[in-house]
Amino acid sequence: MAKDKSLPKGIYKRGEVYWIRYAGLDGKIVYESSKQGDKTGTKIKDAEALLHDRKADIGRGKQPEKARKIPNTTFKELATEYLKWSERQRGFQKKSFFIQQLRDKFDNVPLRHLNTMAIEQYQSERLNKGNKPATVNRVVAVLKHMIHKAVDWELVEESVLKKVRQAKQLEANNRRLRYLSKEECQTLINACDSHLKPIVLTALNTGCRKGEILGLTWENVDLKHGFILLDRTKNGKRREIPINATLRATLETLPRRLDGGHVFYDHKTGKPYQDVKKSFNSAVRRAKIKDFHFHDLRHTFASHLVMAGIDLTTVSRLLGHKDLTMTLRYSHLSPKHMSQAVDIMNEVLSENANYTKTIQSNIHQI
């Protein structure tokens, strides 16, 4: 193949297609098609732009995808590596549960075969099985992050990640707000087994998430000064929760091990509880309460505070929300509180008779 001296350095032609050549990070020469023909006589600019991008990548120490030798990795292989990496993260158990669900579908599928259609078909399958949109979104979010890490680890091309990300989240309208009345709270407490009762009482009096409660250690509990300090929370921020009289009485009755350790643990095995779903569901059935989950104890805590007139900012801080957006879901529970606020403004303005007369005079002039 004779070199065309009229072409810029690093660009040549094969038939009607321009190709580029450049040295990769390892010094080896890479040949890549620009996939642009010569029918218009202007496509050489595309080849020049591609060559410029490739050389820029090399200059930044990034090996262009064309020059990389990326293995044909399966989803199963990625899942193994991802689980090792995610062990140190919060929510590992839930994430590993989602990964197992993804493996049931994609285990032996090469990562290169994952695209927008494959993800959208998976979403449809989960919906047809009765899964809620929010549940499907959480599983797919884990999948997308796995592919993101696969690109970082050079297990798949970045183009695969772009295709996977194009699968949009499902519209989730399944946010629920279920809370118990005061009478139902007492009925549920009475229906709890001995090991479950202090856990439920802690949830009702702190609004903590289940994971925060089961992970609670005596090191986090300061009975002397009356607060619980949570170091590891869902949003990554520390928060302090005051201990009220009911919670104090509950905690003071619990036995402590000499080495401190977890507040709630199985006395037979000495190990902290990983979950209390089975015993909680049994208590709910005995209490004859329908459509109620452990997380709804958190809703109960927040709902009763709002109905008692506690401002949303304070409730938000107690719940550990990043901002007021999540807390606003409880705002409809305090119409009386908002009416009182407007009445106060009315009283303030009514105290100034001259102000009122001026307003009335202006109205008549209109």
Structural features:
about 375 residues; mainly alpha; DNA polymerase, domain 1; hpI Integrase, Chain A; 4 domains; 3-stranded antiparallel β-sheet; elongated
Provide an overview of this structure.
- The chain has 4 domains: 11-67, no CATH class; 75-165, DNA polymerase, domain 1; 182-333, hpI Integrase, Chain A (Orthogonal Bundle), CATH 1.10.443; 336-365, no CATH class.
- Helix 3 crosses helix 5 (133-152).
- The longest helix is centred in the middle third of the chain and has 20 residues, at 133-152.
- The protein has a 3-stranded antiparallel sheet with strand order 1-2-3, with helices on one face. Strands 4-5-6 form a 3-stranded antiparallel sheet, with no helix packed on it.
- It starts with 10 loop residues before the first strand and ends with a helix.
- With 366 residues, the protein is mainly alpha-helical.
- It has helices at 44-59, 75-86, 92-106, 116-128, 133-152, 158-165, 182-191, 197-206, 210-214, 245-252, 277-286, 296-307, 312-319, 324-327, 335-350, 353-365; strands spanning 11-14, 17-23, 29-33, 221-222, 227-230, 239-242.
- Residues 37-42 have low confidence and may be disordered.
- It is built from 16 helices and 6 strands.
